Structure formats: C-alpha cells, structure tokens
Amino acid sequence: MITSDKSFGIRWGVLLLLFSATVIAYIDRLTISLLAPVLQEELGITNMEYAGVATWFLLVYSAFQLFAGRLYDRLGTKTTYTASILVWSIAATLHATTRGIAGLSVYRALLGFGEAGHWPGVTKTVAEWFPPRTRAFAMGLVNSGASFGSVVAPPLVIGLLLAYGWQFAFIATGGLGFIWVVAWWWFYDDPARHRWVTPKELAIIRGDGMSSEAAVTDNAPASRTLPKGIYRTRQLWAITIARFFGDPIWWLYLVWLPLYLKNERGFTMREIGNLAWLPYLFAALGGIAGGWFSGFLLKKGFSVHRARMTAIVTGTLFLPVGLLVINAASSLTMWIYICLTLFGFQFWVNNVQTLPSDIYEKKLVGTVSGMGQSGAGFGSVIFVLATGWVVDQFTYTPILIIAGFLGPLATISLFLIGGKIKPINSQLN
Fold this sequence. Notes:
Elements: H1 10-43, H2 47-75, H3 77-94, H4 101-115, H5 118-129, H6 132-164, H7 166-174, H8 176-187, H9 199-205, H10 212-219, H11 234-246, H12 248-263, H13 269-275, H14 278-299, H15 304-318, H16 331-359, H17 362-393, H18 397-418
C-alpha cells in the first residue's frame, strides 16, 4: 500500500481544471451584481425586482442540484461536466441581449440550470482522483477558485464596463467557459483509463488500503437504482440543513455587496472595481486554510470526525463578525469585518463540502453533494428575496443582524442532526 502523496501528478492537473472552472463560474455569477448599479439606472430596476432576478438563478440552480449529482453518478464526470459548462456559458453570453426584467430572469434561470452541475461535479471528481487524507485540501484549493474568481471579477467586469459598456462585459466573461471546455475534453478521463496516469500515481489515487478492484468499481458510474435508504440517513439531512442556514451568508455579499457599497456607503463604480475584490481575497485564503487545517490535524493523528469538527467550529467563530459591519465607523473597519466574515465562511464551507466523501461511498457522493447544494440554494433564495424587500422598506441592518447568527445555527444543526462523522454502511436499502 502506498501512503506517500508527495509527487506532482495528473491529478493536480485535474485540480487545476476544477479550480479554473470555479473561477469562471464565479465571474459569470458576479457579473450581474457588479453591473447591478448600472442596470438599475438603465432599466429602472428596484431592489426587490433585482432580488427577483437573482432568485431565478438560485431557484433553478438549487432545484437542478438534486438531479445534477445523480447525472454524474449515472453518466460519469466528463460528459456531464462538459454539458454543464456549455449551457452556463451560453446563458452568460445571452445576458448581453437583455432589454428588461423578463430577459434577465430567463438568462439567470438558464445560468442556474448550467451551473447546477458545477459543485456536484467538483465533489465527484475530487472523490475519484484524491484519497481521503488529501480531499479536504483539494476541495480547499478548488473552493478558493470561487474566491479567486470573485477577486478577479470586480476589476475585470467594471474595467470592461467603463471601456466598452455593460453588454460587452457579459459577452467577454461568458466566452471564458467555451475555452475551458476545449481543455477539459482534451485532458480529462477517469483515473483508471487516463492515458497519462502511471501505476504509481493510480496506486496513490486509490490509496488508504483500497484494492484495485474496489477502486475500479468505485470509479464506475453508479447503478440506475439509487439506494432508497440514502434519504433516511441523518447525515444527508444534516449536511443539507447546515448548507441551508450557512450559505446565505456568502450569497448576501455575492449578490448585494456592490449595491450596498454604492447606495449605503457612497462608493463610485470605479471605487467598487478597485476595492470590492478584497473580501474575496480573504475568502480564498480561508478556503485554502480550512482545507490545510483539517488535513494537518489528520496527519497529527486526529480522527476524521475530530479533525473536520475542529475545522468547522473554527470557521464558525469568524462568521458573527459580520454583525460589526452595521456600526463600522470607517470604510477601513467595514472592509476588515467583511474580509474576516468571508474568510470564516470559506474556511467553514470547505470542510462541510468534504463531508459527503468522508461519509458515503464514491458512487453516492454526487447525489449527496447535490442535495447539500440544493439546501444551500433554497436557503439563499429565501435570504436574497428577504434582503430585497427589507432594503426597499428599511435598511441593510436587519439583514446583517440575521446573517450574523446563521453561521452558528448552521454548525449546531450539522452536529446535532448528523452525529459523528464516519463512513456509513454501503447497504442502504
């Protein structure tokens, strides 16, 4: 059995592709929020109407997470991922043709349909290509792509806006996915069939005592019959409910930060482009730190349960810092509080997203991950809509107060419902 995992191999090339796809996904998601102040003026959109547009993405995204994970388990990773990114890239580009709320809503829904396949695909691919001891770190690097894409997006999108207009900004960012698909189709295959994977690297990928026969079986598409017992496992519902409460924190800043900066803090569009990337840089650091930290604890002899629990609780401690944004007396202190909040969120969510592969066999990971993402999406739908209504009627203060308590609520729910983190019996029927 091979226990060393120090060599650079093809799996790190796969990880780079997953990271790049995540960067593109978040650029495409953020383009509309960064352009929202301009779109509000040109199209006469209220905060509640803007919330409705954002909600179409989240509703479709969340609903199809339930099916996307199962498609990966049935049809395999390469084809499903390709279709997913082609659909969302077409949708992102079509935003340039919009003339009002109806068009924006349709294109956001189509974008959500395509992007629904992203995170189940990431979790499935990491489970196929990385042994358990390095999965959290791998997920941390991929998760950091969400933050890196969010770092790149403000200067990129607003730079395109100021130079060429908002229509070209949608076209240029939407086109990135088509380039990615070419690289993915040329490079990717399952580990056991990949033309460049050496026997040594395949043994590492199958590591931690898994036999060659088991590894091949585990990497094969799942049977068409999903074990009914999976929906009775409390771990699946613990992950789903935790994401329902926790992920709205991320979406609050992803959807509303540019409008908050312009309307509440008086920032210009150029200032937003120059500074709005800062919180996402800290989020990227949080994602990497969260994956490294739990991996470090595992190497020190911690059990999977103790390592993941310690990392998740550590990330949770940062999340109530968002409450301090309300009374931040200066822009500097405001940025510090927002940066710490998003650092904590990515530290937290990176470890929560690793739980499906810690608990379930690989052929079920896509399905469980999809359920978790659906919980995240539906919780965020409610919160985004509530934010639109509350901001139109009052201010951002009630929303920031609620967001400050969501992180601890998510973590408490995760451990009260899910119990100890450990592999469960594969015979779930």
